[in-house]
Amino acid sequence: MRTRYRRKWTAPLAMLACSALMLSGCADFDNTAAGQNFTPVNPPSPEVPPQVGPGGDAGDSGPGGPGRGNGPNQSQTPIPPPQGCKDFDKAVIATCLDTVAAVAAIPGDGTSPSALAGERKSGRIMLAAAGKDPADWATIPVDGSSDGGLSSLALSPGFAEDQLVFAYITTQSDNRVVRLAKGQAPKPVLTGIPKGTTGNRGVIGTDAKGALLVATGDAGNAGLAADPGSLAGKVLRIDTSGKPAPGNPTAGSAVFATGVHSPGGMCRDQTGSRLWLTDRLADKDVLYRLRGGQPLATPAWSWTDKPGVAGCADFVGATGYLTLTTSIAGNLQNLPVTPDGAVTGKPNVVMDGKVGKPPKTFGRLSAMSMVNPQMAVTGTLNKDGGAPVSSDDRVVIVTPSAGAGVNGKD
Asked: Which residue in 22, 27, 145, 211 has a CA-CA distance of 20 to 30 Å to 40?
């Protein structure tokens, strides 16, 4: 049984986020994960939901250390504005890029976070690392003339050994998945994904069994999402050579789920028990809980104001929140979620330039990728319809902490 459920969460931070100035959403709650009919429960109560930077909003210390943030015990000293490509916010680990639509974090302990950052229009991939200038990693020829180009990156499931990276790209003739190593030309993995004037964005992720999950756009034709003979509008589960992965809902078929239109992000917890996909429909933005063989019909949450929901990071184990970026509204949305995947209330909104001490925003945000269970990275898209500052576009650290330590603890 699915029940439409809306309510005001009255915890202090949520009151800020759910004020008249904040975004609101509506949800068709899917509680099959809990194995029971939905009963309202108290939302998780971490001390502080995910915010930005190594110590929240990142202040005087480097990644992993204390800093100024949105937390209750933080300094209100404003961070100076960027000067050219120099950004004084310690949450920023790369500057002066162009439309960072794709990020792939390199796993680590968070002491010196790094990630690959892909520019949508140019196909250039840069290595971003805290305390270092961005370095060229590879360039993929792409067609970035519409909403396509280089739209997603994912490390190989065996990256520690093979150093391979997978990318979702638009070419002159199709959308496709390719793989490449540093400085090398890409090799096709899955080709022939329909291309259109819109609906070319795709997302790549991995599951806990070492398979690739590929969410494809509908190429501007919503009917393709339900067409079993088309690769468009699907979540595909393939092995690293592009073949249907073992254990798919239908043996010999790459289709894992149907009903995708314009995917923005995909994320999961470490065990793979919670798998999420964001999508943008004609009338709303949505978040889906992915389950193999089930069409994407009832969202776990929806946004009728269409903030451009993009990437996501499953911080549920650390904070009780699924954190999402938005590429139009330009904020973080923290959605309270239980360990079994049930959404328990409205998202609270941070990093929107309105709340926080001091308030802050990085503008339009794109994909997210987890460095570890308590840190992720995201990119900015301010050079693509936003209001860029001198250091845009950037790669930014997001953590669950808004104080000196995890969950705001000293």
From this structure: 22
Strands (E), 260-385: 265-268, 275-280, 285-289, 301-303, 309-315, 321-326, 332-336, 348-350, 365-372, 375-380
Q: Rounded CA gap, 94 and 85, in Å?
A: 9
Determine the number of helices (DSSP H) and then strands (DSSP E) in the chain. Answer: 3, 27
Question: What is the CATH topology of the domain spanning 92-398?
Answer: Neuraminidase (2.120.10)
Cis peptide, bond prior to residue 358, ω within 30 of zero: yes
Q: Phi, psi (5° rounding) for residue 95? A: -135, 170
Domain residue limits, the chain:
92-398
pLDDT in tens, 298-343: 999 999 999 999 999 999 999 999 999 999 999 999 999 999 999 9
- In eight-state DSSP terms, residue 162 is H
> Which of 314, 325, 308, 321 lies closest to 290 in space, CA to CA?
314
Q: Whole-prediction pTM value? A: 0.83
pLDDT of 311 reads 98
d(CA 296, CA 239): 22
Phi, psi of 34 (to 5 degrees): -85, -10
For the segment 10-65, what is each residue's pLDDT rounded down to a tens digit? 333 333 333 333 333 444 444 433 333 333 333 344 445 666 554 444 333 334 33
Nearest residue to 175 (alpha-carbon basis) of 154, 155, 147? 147
Beta bridge partners of 176: 169
